[in-house]
Structures are given as C-alpha cells and as structure tokens.
Amino acid sequence: MRPSLLTDLTAKVRAAFVAEGLDPAFGRVQISDRPELGQFQSNGALAAAKAAKMNPLSLASQIQTRLETDEWFSNVSITGPGFINIKLMDWVLAQALAASDAILAPAAATRGKVVVDFGGPNVAKAMHVGHLRSSIIGDALQRHLKFAGFDTKSDVHLGDWGKPMGMLITEVKLRRPELPYFDPAFTGPYPVEPPVTMEDLETLYPIAAAASKADPVRDEEARTATAELQQGRAGYRALWRHFIDVSIAGIKREFASLGVYFDLWKGEADVDPLIGPMLTDLKARGIAELDDGALIVRVGEPSDKKEMPPLMLVKRDGGVLYETTDVATIIDRVKSLDPDLVLYVVDQRQHEHFEKVFRGAIKAGYAGKAVLEHVGFGTMNGADGKPFKTRAGGVLKLYDLIEMAKAEAEKRLVEAGIGADYPPEERATVARQVGLAAIKFADLSNYRLTNYIFDLERFTKFEGKTGPYLQYAAVRVKSLLRKAMEEQARPGAIAITAAEERDLALAILRFPDALEETIKVRAPNVMCDYAYTLAQRFSSFYAAHHIMSESDTALRASRLALAALTLRALETALELLGIEVPERM
RNA sequence: GCACCCGUAGCUCAGCUGGAUAGAGCGCUGCCCUCCGAAGGCAGAGGCCAGGGGUUCGAAUCCCUUCGGGUGCGCCA
Description:
Layout: H1 5-19, E1 30-31, E2 40-42, H2 44-52, H3 56-68, E3 73-79, E4 83-88, H4 90-98, H5 101-104, E5 113-117, H6 129-148, E6 151-155, H7 163-175, H8 198-214, H9 216-231, H10 234-258, H11 272-284, E7 288-291, E8 294-297, E9 311-314, H12 322-336, E10 341-345, H13 351-363, E11 371-375, E12 380-381, H14 398-415, H15 424-444, E13 452-453, H16 456-459, H17 467-486, H18 499-509, H19 511-521, H20 525-544, H21 553-576
Parallel strand pairs: 5-6, 5-10, 10-11, 12-13
Antiparallel strand pairs: 1-2, 2-4, 3-4, 7-8, 8-9
This protein binds one RNA strand through α2, β9, α13, β13 and α17.
C-alpha cells in the first residue's frame, strides 16, 4: 500500500498509543468531522479508555502530551469526551506535495494477482443497458487494481455455450434447413462464409427465445440441439463457430466505443474440454452425486439460514449449465494464472449462483489459493423506478444508449456555445467524451449495490455532481496552465499560506486513501467522491485567488504548481474511472 | 413461505469497521464577472436518518421486530 498523509499520521498516533501501553489499533486517524477544530481527528482514546477501564479525558490528555512534541503538529487539542484534534504545520503539507509524485504514479505489480471477470456479453444478443454497469464498474475496478500494484487480468467471459446457442441453431434450421450444418451425412468442409450476420442474430435470438418459451416442442428441440452441440456434433459446432466470430467482432466494437478494455477474451466454451475430466474427478471422489438423473454437488452448510440448493453440474438430459462452466473456468484460471483473488462483477441477482459455484469449487479443492468474490451491483432503472426500458417497452441497446448520450452532450455544447469554432472531428470527439463521462460518472458515483434511476438529461448537465462538470474543472485548469505557459510564468516551490490552498492541498493528498478505499470495498463511488471534492476545492481556490495577476512571482509560481498538481490528481482519478478529459471544451 | 438488498432534505444520492452540530448535487432565496473559462464561487432555508424496541457513556451506523419497495429461491443465463 502506498503511504499517504493519513497513514503517516496514523503511524504517529499509533506510536503514542503504544507508548501508553495500548493497542496500536486505537491510533486510527481520520479526516476531521469538525474542520474548525482540526484537519484530522482520532477518536481512539474513547475506545481505548473503555477497553482499559480508564478515564477517556485523562488518556486523551496523555496522548496529546506525546503528540505535542512532534514538530509536524501545529496544534493538538482535546474536545468533547476525548476527541483528539490535530492540525498540521503548513510546511508538512508543502513537503508532502513536493513528494506527491510517488502517490500519483502507478505502482509496480507486487501485490498479487487478480482476475476481474466482467462484461459478460452473450453471443447473438446485442449488448444492452444490462451490460453497462458490469462493464463500467468492472473496468473502473481493474484500472484501480492495476494502478495500485495488483497484477490484474480482466476476462470478458463471453456467454457462448448455453441453451441460447441451441435455440439459435434450431431457429436457423427452421428457416434454412438446406444448409449443410444440419445434414448429418455432410462430411465437410463447411462454408467459410458465415450464413448469418450480427444483425441477423440479433433479430433471430428474441424470436427463438419467445418460441422456446411459448412452445414446449420448440423448447425441447433447443434443449436437444444444445446437448448435441456440447457433445460435439460437427455441423452444429461449425455453425456455432460462425455465431461466435460474427458476434465477437460486434462486441469488440461496442467495448471499444465504451473505452473498456479486456486482457482476455475467453468464453464459456473455452473450458468445455475441462468439463469431462472435471465431472469424472468429482464423481470419483464422491463430491458429486446423481440426484433424480442430474449430477449435483451438495453445498449446504449447517450455518446456512436457509437451505442452499445444490450446485447442478449436469441436467437430466445430459446438458451442462453455466454453473458447470463457471466451476470449470475456476479450474482453468487457477491452472493458467493461479490468482490470489477473482472478482466477479455481475448483477446482484446472481448472488446465490456464485455462492453455490464458489462453495462447490472450494469443496472440490479447485480454487487454489484464490479468494473468490462476487462483486454485485443493483439495477439501472427508468423514471418509473423499474428496470430501464425504452418507450416501446423493449430493452435499450448499449449502442443506442451511447448514441443518445452523445447527442445529448452535443446539445449541451451548443447550448453553452462551446466548440462552434472547433474542427468537426474535435467536436465529435468532445461530444463522445462528454456523453460517456456523463453516463459513467452517473453510474459509478452511486454505491454499486443501490439501484439508480437513469436520467440522461440530469447526467449530462454541466452543473453539479456530474461527469461533465469534472471534465470542465480539469479543462479549466489546463486552460490556466496554457495561459501561464504563454506568459512564461513557470510553476515553482509550493508554499501554503491561504485557507483555500490548505484545503486544496489536503484534498490532493487524500488520493492514496481514496484509491485504497475504492479497492478495499470494491466501490468506485469512493473515487468519484474524491474527484468531485477535489474539483470543488480547486474551484474555491481558483475563485478566491487570482493567479495570473499575482505580482509576487514566488506566490504565483507556488499557485501554478498547486494548480498543476490538482490537474494531475484529477486526471488520474478520472482515468481510474474510465473518464477521458478533452484538451478544451 | 424462506433468504438477500434497500428505506437518509421536495427530488436524486453519499455517509453504515458506533463517536461531537447527519453531508452532496438538483430545485429554492440572496449576493459575486471593467480581472486566469460564472459549466463557477460565497451565504442561507430545508431532516423525529421509515416506525417501534434493545445493546452502549454515545446509534443513521450493531441486534430484534413491524411496515413499505426491490430481487432471488434445483435442471434458463
């Protein structure tokens, strides 16, 4: 973990507690709730006094006496029942800022290996708003993990092996039975040209799904086709391969337009070869058992508040499920990557599924040293509070959502009179960056488990707590620094003198704490808050002190340096959230 | 029925490893551009933290319970 001002302070206060013969855990320091009393506070004396049956005020006083000898502190006071308030010398802030390069730079990968499983697009299905949260949150988390020094591998985990594949095969068969893929006597080679386009698949899938739901005969056909595909029927495999290839091309485009990156493009089908041996192994060791024709693993534990259904590996009809591929994927990842942690950024509604898979994998000894963790999230709802739908009641495609956001951003730019003189390409780029920032920040700034209401008009507003506001704040600093450059005004040594500088410095220096907290709770809204507070503090500073007209050149140089550092911290935070900052807007 | 998530300002949301006077944005009121980008800043009004019990010196935070909303519960993903 990278050190921060807060961790340094905690170390000092801990030392004071230890010197009093108390547990260092009591020395935890936090940002003060009462800024007029101090910049930081420690409430440890209260808890420590309780544990040691001491008087909290006299204990706090002893800690105070020890802390007062430290040259870092300009003031250590006690208020209330024993709160310790701390103010730092301004030179401590200046010194920390001078050394802040270390806290704002990415760390070398020394903290272990993490696999982040997110996105989860399905073959043949257009990506829709349901994929948005997983993609945005997962991407933000992988960026944070990489930056903080974890060897991180993201995997899109394509949905390419379940019953939807069987449904599609039967739908194509119904429409074009003459194709060689359906002729059992055909010995190949099968055509190289795909018989369907991405658009075809997107049309066919909902039809096939509806048919399956409405007609038990069709459903049975789909089930059979899925089983035959999984058992290796050549024509089906060849046709399925086309589905995959056509789909992946489209899916890659979608993720690229979102600015979301994956290290690995694996799918459920990739672990198919592992499934047979895995089932054999589980049966041989008596971990899996037959129950009513299906192969299951009982994963209930005595401590369960309610009965946990078993992990189902093979259905009565011989088909496997995503539970099966998920367990096999753990085997695959442990074998190829041997991670310390695997994060599954998937809708909270699948929580029980993951609980079963994790228990099964651990019971079978497949997880290696990896901690398996489901990072769930809530739904994105429409204005009515129900999961987001288009006006027509359908599912909104991700592509269309992005287009809407771009158009809305464009509208705002026109309203604000920005970019009228920009070249068309730059205008389009800025509209895209602003639209994406609006969507991403709105999504990420809510705690991931809460359901939130999607309101594009509100998200794209340039005022208030929005992505575009943060971009604006960063762009404004860039503009200031450009102007300084033109006027040959150079940044210099930072000296903290004014209240707004102090507040801004403290905000910048909180970056490592925001980073670590985001990772610890796997929740990017922490970093969103950091970025927003930082931008606000800068705005206050900027409004209170006119920099370029400052006649004291040392002071001007200091303030320029503070502005430059703010920009660096803000851009870094936004980058971790997957938000781009234009040069101007 | 059982389990999980949630209920905080008019609206949208933070805060939840217990700590002082519960925060932000929008909206509302009033100020601030002859000066670096006002998409901004400053100040203000607005809350029995769903209700009720309990633990504690101290509860929005932990426990129990009621009500209200969402989700899930063996052969879909």
